[in-house]
Known about the structure:
Shape: flat
Number of helices: 5
Radius of gyration: 20 Å
Largest sheet: 4 strands, mixed
Amino acid sequence: xxxxxxxxxxxxxxxxxxxxxxxxxxxxxxxxxxxxxxxxxxxxxxxxxxxxxxxxxxxxxxxxxxxxxxxxxxxxxxxxxxxxxxxxxxxxxxxxxxxxxxxxxxxxxxxxxxxxxxxxxxxxxxxxxxxxxxxxxxxxxxxxxxxxxxxxxxxxxxxxxxxx
Length: 164
């Protein structure tokens, strides 16, 4: 009567060098090769698609990725130091238009969205429409609302998919 290693807590399984158990959650992890473009590994295929569409519409020199915005500075209260609250933007276009790719909104995202709005920063939430052309049009609408000029090329999503 021995102990089944798979019944051990995950941290002990890791220390023993056992294979990591597969996640039973509802989210699937997509293969890294499908989330990589131009040598960059993205958090999701959706974020990778956003990168490729932005690259085709406005060019690489007009946007940055994964920049932090400080929503609340660190502070000390009753002798305890609290860390700053930061938001990591997926894309910032022309140093002012913040775009976040979301499959769905989380409570944390909604809270940070309100905190950013109080600072005068509007975060555009670009949701997956499950349709490449619809996604392209949604992104164009976000760029237009931010006053960003771009190439009006409806084949941008096709051209970028060929780049992979």
